[in-house]
From TrEMBL:
The ABC-type transport auxiliary lipoprotein component domain, residue ranges: 28-186
PROSITE patterns: PROKAR_LIPOPROTEIN
Protein's name in the database: ABC-type transport auxiliary lipoprotein component domain-containing protein
Residues making up the signal peptide according to the UniProt record: 1-27
Pfam families hit by this protein: ABC_trans_aux (PF03886)
Domain of life from the UniProt record: Bacteria
The species this protein was found in: Paraburkholderia susongensis
Length: 195
């Protein structure tokens, strides 16, 4: 009888253990979303996005969501498909291609073939948001023109509402906020070109 009860208990525990499954992780990528607003003249210019720094707090695979002023939460099941320090420079470069027609934009100096390029550095101060709320991106950026012209320093604080609940909508809001950063950088390059 004792053996029977032991086996029955073991089978019950095994059956209950099989019922519980962990949630599946979802993976997200940022995208270029900037659209031309001004009719800038087409002018061939080289632009290199040389570096983008990301706060250590968010430079991880999991989404980091601000819960309160002094608390954040990591969501193990909402993840970036690629590290942010790789995605963000690509998104800014892709946005600049749209915003600066005729420009050759790269993240690698050797790929800009003609003349001295404009160099762009971006330091993200904030990259935070919450699903169903908004995404906030705050960036300090520097545009270094060719030929010894003075550097152009800028600051962008972009807050984009999330177009819906969930992490996919939050990712879209982050992409739009990065588009605002790119738009400010493009305007600085255009202003420098017109001097």
């Amino acid at each position: 009888m004792r053996t029977f009860l032991s086996r029955a208990l073991l089978l019950t525990v095994a059956a209950l253990g099989a019922c519980g499954t962990s949630p599946t992780a979802s993976f997200y990528t940022l995208g270029a979303v900037a659209a031309r607003e001004d009719d800038y003249p087409v002018r061939p210019v080289g632009v290199v996005v040389t570096s983008v720094t990301v706060p250590d707090l968010v430079d991880r695979p999991q989404f980091v969501v601000r819960v309160s002023d002094n608390q954040v939460k990591l969501d193990e099941f909402a993840r970036w498909a690629d590290p942010l320090k790789s995605q963000i420079p690509r998104v800014i470069a892709a946005d600049l291609v749209v915003l600066l027609p005729g420009a050759r934009v790269s993240m690698y100096p050797q790929e800009v073939d003609a003349g001295a390029p404009y160099r762009v550095r971006v330091e993200l101060q904030r990259f935070e948001g919450a699903p169903g709320d908004a995404a906030t991106v705050e960036a300090l950026w520097v545009v270094i023109p060719p030929k010894g012209s003075p550097s152009i320093n800028g600051h962008t604080l972009a807050r984009e509402p999330s177009p819906g609940p969930g992490y996919e909508a939050l990712t879209a809001a982050y992409s739009k906020a990065l588009g605002d950063v790119s738009r400010d950088i493009a305007a600085a390059i255009q202003a420098s070109l017109s001097k």
